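Q: What residues go here?
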């Protein structure tokens, strides 16, 4: 089994990325420089619900989350109709043919820590039982943890696995979280990140730009607070209005407007300028949303062109990630 020698993000490697002229601490480049083989994240759907939808906290869910509640991506084998084994094996088989050597299993749709610790452990043990699986990424909410879950995850780290939590943060502004009907607090996010850091669990926060009523200052504060917490990585997205959501109702009433492409590019640059240079950036767009369920924005969300435009804007401004981070 592969052993994760250092479960901390290496500042030296990130420095080497900037030294080579990159303006963003891109996770893909970091991966290439730290792993002696190609790694791919395999998404799996283990059928988890969400406490914000199943009645544990609420039944409405976040205002931007589709009511159907299942993935809005179309990976052929990431489907809870299939067993977990089938989803993993089929995807390993597929990506091995494409030259990928090692895998991280990404428990993606729903809240993947919303269950009894012993049941969660069974699923995670199964995923880690494949010889080419080097770790897990677990998509969840900041309030869906307890000591037993942290203990199980820490135990995997002690065995040499790389464990990431993909944490739905969205914003560090409580008023925004309340408007979004997140049903958790900023303190949940702070405490979860701190506990993960203490135990060597890597955290990738998901943040949305262009949320209703958020000011430029609110967004920049989110960048600064998460940087101070030494979050390991971020995925940054524009808010997308999807059919059959509360947000869609608000949108059609004319009470919310999505960012246009130029505004988004500019905001991402501002956000990154105020983010620590040592936070890895995993994504800067959300490109898996099928066009037939997307209401707004109309512009294409493809990742690479957006990354290129952001880099171009940085060059124009002569700035880069972290330039204004104190
Ligand atoms: S926490 Fe995630 S899955 Fe649950 S309602 Fe909100 S966006 Fe949807």
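A:
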């Amino acid at each position: 089994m592969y052993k994760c020698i250092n479960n901390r993000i290496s500042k030296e490697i990130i420095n080497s990325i900037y030294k080579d002229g990159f303006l963003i601490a891109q996770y893909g480049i970091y991966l290439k420089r730290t792993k002696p083989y190609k790694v791919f994240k395999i998404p799996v759907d283990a059928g988890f619900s969400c406490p914000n939808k199943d009645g544990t906290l609420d039944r409405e869910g976040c205002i931007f989350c589709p009511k159907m509640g299942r993935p809005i991506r179309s990976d052929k084998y990431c489907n809870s109709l299939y067993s977990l084994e089938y989803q993993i094996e089929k995807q390993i088989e597929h990506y091995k043919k494409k030259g990928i050597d090692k895998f991280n299993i990404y428990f993606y749709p729903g809240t993947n820590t919303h269950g009894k610790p012993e049941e969660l452990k069974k699923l995670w043990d199964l995923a880690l039982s494949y010889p080419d699986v080097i770790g897990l990424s677990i998509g969840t909410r900041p309030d869906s943890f307890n000591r037993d879950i942290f203990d199980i995850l820490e135990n995997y780290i002690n065995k040499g696995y790389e464990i990431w939590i993909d944490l739905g943060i969205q914003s560090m502004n409580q008023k925004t979280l309340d408007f979004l009907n997140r049903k958790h607090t900023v303190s949940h996010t702070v405490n979860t990140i701190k506990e993960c850091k203490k135990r060597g669990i890597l955290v990738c926060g998901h943040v949305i730009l262009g949320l209703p009523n958020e000011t430029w200052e609110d967004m920049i504060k989110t960048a600064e607070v998460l940087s101070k917490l030494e979050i390991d990585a971020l995925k940054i997205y524009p808010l997308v209005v999807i059919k059959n959501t509360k947000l869609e109702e608000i949108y059609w009433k004319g009470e919310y407007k999505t960012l246009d492409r130029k505004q988004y590019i500019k905001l991402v640059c501002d956000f990154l300028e105020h983010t620590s240079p040592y936070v890895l950036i995993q994504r800067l767009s959300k490109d898996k949303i099928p066009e037939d369920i997307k209401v707004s924005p109309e512009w294409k969300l493809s990742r690479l062109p957006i990354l290129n435009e952001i880099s171009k804007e940085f060059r124009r401004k002569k700035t880069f990630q972290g330039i204004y981070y104190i």
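A: Context that may help when evaluating the design: The first strand starts at residue 39 and ends at 44. The chain has one domain: 11-317.
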